[in-house]
Amino acid sequence: RVLTRLSDPALADLMSRAAPLLGGLPVLSLASDDVAVVSDPDAELAIVVHDLLPDPSARFAWLRVVQQRFPAVCLFLLLPHRAEVLRQAVLHGARLPLAGVEVWTPELTAKALAVRLKDAASRRAEALALWQRVATWHLPSPVRSLAEAELCWAPPNATLKQVVDLAGTGYETMRRAAAKAGLPSPSRFVEKLRLVRAAAALSTGMKVKLAAAEYGFHDRDRFERRMRHHFGLTPTEAARVGARDLLARLGGN
């Protein structure tokens, strides 16, 4: 499902024109910021498209509540080109895991928006499927929280600190729990999971250079080195193997 909360008339019109291009995904308009209306036990995934109006600070607070209560919800900001909205997005956006951000320009077409939303939905669905597998592993609670944060909440280019903050447990606590269980350090564990996420994106047709940037590896060379280091594969080979098979190589948990 795509749930929209758009107060800006131009953005609401753009979304209405993009809706028929979403390949059958139902699009519903939220009449209020009632958290309960976001939850649907029959829906495996929901994308909330919000423009942060009329009060960006209050809307960010609401979106954080939504994300915390419903990890399966994917947040997508469709923003008007207004200085205060963009300023608040810069100030607060890093603290809120987002599947995508678009700022209105005359060049932003309904087709382009639909492509971005479908891509966000596809990536979110794959991340949740990966988490469902990892959730069956026997992990210490702090490490489990770290894995959930990386796969369910963190944007693809999140820093380690951002992932740790999302997990809600201190790094040192995670490190001790991982060491006691014979697991990799939190930084290595997150990098392994990030590479799995990147492999999933590659398998959908994303180019290696773009995946390197999108998933926080900065350049293609570093991306290839880290993939070889952890999995003994090139990114192209990892895409062929598949993200779920890569998970099975992380230690048989």
Short synopsis of the structure:
This protein is an alpha/beta fold. The protein has helices at residues 9-18, 56-69, 83-92, 110-134, 141-153, 160-167, 171-180, 186-203, 208-214, 220-231, 235-241, 243-248, and strands at 2-5, 27-29, 46-50, 73-79, 100-103. A five-stranded parallel beta sheet has the order 2-1-3-4-5, sandwiched between helices.
Can you tell me about this structure?
It is a single chain. The protein contains twelve helices and five strands. It is an alpha/beta fold. Strand 1, helix 1 and strand 2 form a beta-alpha-beta unit. The relative contact order is 0.09.
List keywords for this structure.
5-stranded parallel β-sheet; alpha/beta; 9% strand; 253 residues; 5 strands; 55% helix
**Beta-strand percent range:** 5-15%
Class by SSE composition: alpha/beta
Q: Which blocks of ≥5 consecutive residues have pLDDT under 50?
A: none
Order of helices and strands: EHEEHEHEHHHHHHHHH
The N- and C-terminal alpha carbons lie at a distance of: 33 Å
Helix count? Answer: 12
Main sheet: which strands, in order across?
Answer: 2-1-3-4-5
Please provide the count of β strands: 5
Helix content: 55-70%
Q: What is the average of the pLDDT values?
A: 88
Shape, please? globular
> What gyration radius follows from the Cα positions, in whole Å?
18 Å
Give the biggest beta sheet: 5 strands, parallel
